[in-house]
From TrEMBL:
This is HhH-GPD domain-containing protein. Residues 193-223 are annotated as: Disordered.
Length: 223
């Protein structure tokens, strides 16, 4: 199923969102299913149990980072950075960030003082606490909503937030819809499906690549 970002068909958006769990499973990545449950269910509950002064621990940030990297591109250095952060620093920065909401710009700035935490990771932290207003800055959703996913600046994230918040408000007027994070998950799901459909038959590309490497290697040896 294709989904145009401009579409106001609530049914189409709900169908895309409903495929999220199966898309997560289809990636066949170690622990991703359990990490996704932690991120979407357990972590929000833990954070709100700490209201009115919610905060994040280093251990929780590390798990969140594992989820982010498993669902997207794996960058082990980022995981190393956040896992070694001082717990008091993470608690302080996250508490300030959550208190800054709904000022998303300020909330991101409070979190990005931590080593290894850029706007994308900060967005994941904020989305865990306030999914209705702060969507995760995924490459897939950025590509659909903004046309590219290479700019991870705060300015770009704020534009992304506005786009997804506006779309969520539009869908709410037409039917039942929760918020900006559901827009992100719907976009991620349809993008993942499109990518999987465009992939060549399993095994064929790998054989072709190895054959080409073999030919290139023979060519180099001849020179």
């Amino acid at each position: 199923m294709e989904l145009d970002f401009k579409s106001s068909d609530v049914g189409a958006w709900k169908e895309a969102l409903s495929s999220y769990d199966s898309r997560i499973e289809s990636l066949n990545k170690p622990d991703l299913v359990s990490l996704d449950q932690f991120y979407r269910v357990k972590l929000p509950s833990l954070l709100h149990d700490r209201d009115p002064n919610p905060y994040l621990t280093t251990s929780e940030l590390s798990q969140l980072m594992k989820w982010k990297l498993s669902r997207g591109k794996w960058r082990p250095r980022l995981l190393d950075f956040v896992s070694s952060l001082d717990d008091s620093a993470v608690k302080s920065a996250s508490e300030k960030a959550f208190k800054s909401l709904p000022d998303i710009s300020q909330a991101v700035k409070e979190l990005t003082v931590l080593k290894g935490v850029g706007p994308a990771t900060a967005s994941a932290v904020l989305a865990a606490y306030a999914p209705d207003i702060a969507p995760f800055m995924s490459d897939e959703a950025m590509e659909v909503a903004l046309g590219n996913s290479k700019d991870y600046s705060l300015k770009r994230y704020l534009l992304f937030v506005t786009k997804l918040q506006d779309k969520a408000k539009e869908l709410k007027l037409k039917g039942e819809w929760d918020g900006a994070s559901d827009i992100e998950r719907a976009l991620w799901s349809v993008t993942l499906r499109s990518k999987s459909k465009s992939k060549p038959e399993k095994g064929s590309s790998e054989k072709k690549r190895k054959r080409q490497e073999s030919q290139n290697s023979l060519g180099k040896e001849d020179k």
